[in-house]
Specification:
alpha+beta; two-stranded antiparallel sheet; 2 helices; flat
Length: about 80
Amino acid sequence: MRMVNNLHAKPAKMISSLRDLVDSSACAFGDKVLYRYNEDQQVKTYTYNDLQKNVHAIGTALMQLGLSGKSIAIIGEN
């Protein structure tokens, strides 16, 4: 490890895909809240682990459709 401002810091991990970004975020932050939203007059939470689970499910579904290695666009509500 190298020293940064007298703190020990690990070298940055190379991110080469969206999956890498999601996986490293889930590893680092796990069950911490990524965001909160209102649904049916209740505040719900979405964690980094929830994101990872959903990204992997979407990736698996796209691969099963034969879209592995293809460019796709996902359009939805903001």
